Amino acid sequence: MTAPATASRPANPANPARHLPSLTGLRWATAMLIFGHHLMAVEYFGGTAGTVWAFVFEAGKTGVTLFFILSGFVLAWGHKPQQSAGSFYWHRFARIYPLHLVGVGLALVAAATLVPEIRTAGRAPLVANVLLVNGWVPDWWQAGNPASWSLVCEAFFYLSFPFLIRPLVRLSNRARGGVVVASLVLVALAPQIAAISPLPMSAASTPLLRLPEFVLGVTLALLLKGGAWMPWKLRYTLPLAVVGYALSEAPPIPGTDIHPGLAATVGSFALLVASLAAADAHGGSTFLARPLWQELGRVSFAFYLVHLLVIASVSSSWPDGHPQLPWRHALLLALAAFSIALAIAWVLHRAVEIPAQKWLLRYDRSRHVSEGTGAAVGGETHASAAGSPAAR
After folding, report:
1. pTM for the whole thing?
2. Rounded average pLDDT over 93-115
3. Domain contains 385
4. pLDDT at res. 12
5. So what's the pLDDT on residue 366?
6. What are the Acyltransferase domain coordinates in residue numbering (predicted)?
7. Of 378, 360, 374, which Cα lies nearest the Cα of 97?
8. Alpha-carbon distance 233 to 223, whole Å?
């Protein structure tokens, strides 16, 4: 990361009116990491192939981290001060809630038929999932639709955004740099905070402990928009993100639950997001901006919400739902699960997500304010991704 400019006037400001198509494409790439991680968790591959698959995709759960950073970055990039908090909340509700309800319904069907192991024990955790608050109780984190725990985090991020963006906009560039450093420190400390907290908390699923990732995305977007900072080029940040991906599995500092590797992961992912955004904002182009990646990125939210249900349903006829097949057979089964999940996601995107969002936004009393928070990436941000993630 290059040092922030010290001049009061931006030297090379990005164009905040530009769309950021590369970030839409990145959403799909991130969803594929999570898909690979869940294939590993359900053990499609057995033997040596399973070992290799686990080596590559054990860290795939960090795709949720990337979604959280993306969410903060995109919301800050498209932020319009004239939009009221009520309008902002309504846009976010319209973006994620209709598909969330459909995802919960599909999870209930799967639990009652092919995948009984995801059945929610009790009415309270199920209602909490419907209301997107179940992640605040660690034992309920995967109630309802197991993938929707990240939407609980996103809902909290959305609730916080109008209160976070105002002071962050007013901060100096030097102070924003301090926020970046503090966010990374809190990421490393999150497991330790969860371990010593008098209240039950999980570093993985408690929204408050995932907030620094979102704040980091917001802060870097503000730095880039103002021209106070330019990230490295993609040819540097992409391999750095691969290293960060691997470091997510690094052990903690001995005798503690402090994980510097997690901070390295989050920092490298944030640099990747910023470098892609900078390329788009300054009139460049990346492979992620190509039409196919754009279409896949637009269905990534629906894909995320259904992919784990499909993976578990397809494998349900094997003992304990874990096929552990030779690589050729496992690959065919994985392709079948992928195709089914993508087909369902495309239908949900076209038949539910788009029309429901349009219908709900008709009731936004601030319609004269432009579509604000999602405009920068073709209309929206993902709500989340792995064991969840809402990229959103």
Report:
1. 0.90
2. 97
3. no
4. 56
5. 72
6. 22-346
7. 360
8. 16
pLDDT of the residue at 365: 74
Q: What is the pLDDT of residues 144-187, one digit of tens each?
A: 999 999 999 999 999 999 999 999 999 999 999 999 999 999 99
In this prediction, residues 101-106 reach a mean pLDDT of 98
Residue 382 in any domain: the answer is no
- If one counts the domains in the chain, the total is 1
Q: Please report the pLDDT score of residue 14 as a whole number.
A: 64
Provide the domain limits for residue 362: 21-377
* Residue corresponding to tokens 């009520």: 86
Of 14-23, 64-73, 213-222, the poorest mean pLDDT is in: 14-23
Given the structure tokens 């800050």, which residue do they identify?
76
Beta-carbon count within 10 A of 327 CB: 17
Residue 227 confidence class, pLDDT cut points 50, 70, 90: confident
Half-sphere exposure of 58 (CA within 13 A, CB side): 10
One-letter amino acid identity for 174? R
Closest CA to 46 of 381, 309, 324, 303: 324
Residue 133 in tokens: 């608050």
Tell me how crowded residue 158 is: count the other CB atoms within 10 A of its CB: 25
Helix (H) / strand (E) containing 63:
helix 63-77
The phi and psi torsions of 325 (rounded to 5 degrees) equal -95, 160
Dihedral sign from CA coordinates of 72, 31, 384, 195? negative
One DSSP character per residue, 298-311 reads HTHHHHHHHHHHHH
Question: Whose structure tokens read 């910023």?
Answer: 274
Label residue 378 by pLDDT band (50, 70, 90).
very low
Write the CB contacts of 131 (distance below 8 Å, at least 6 apart in sequence): none
Structure tokens at 77: 């990039």
Contact indicator for 221, 248 with CB cutoff of 8 Å = no
Residue whose entry in the numeric block shows the structure tokens 């926020």: 179
Whether the Cβ atoms of residue 153 and residue 134 lie closer than 8 Å to each other:
no
Burial (CB < 10 A; 0-12, 13-18, 19+), residue 113, is exposed
- Contact call for residues 49 and 326 (beta carbons, < 8 A): yes
Q: Which residues does 350 contact at the CB level (< 8 Å), separation at least 6?
A: none
Tokens of 241: 């993100």
Q: Give the separation between CA 346 and CA 350, rounded to whole angstroms.
A: 6
Angle at which helices 85-112 and 123-130 pack, to 10 degrees? 140
Say whether pLDDT at 210 is over 70: yes
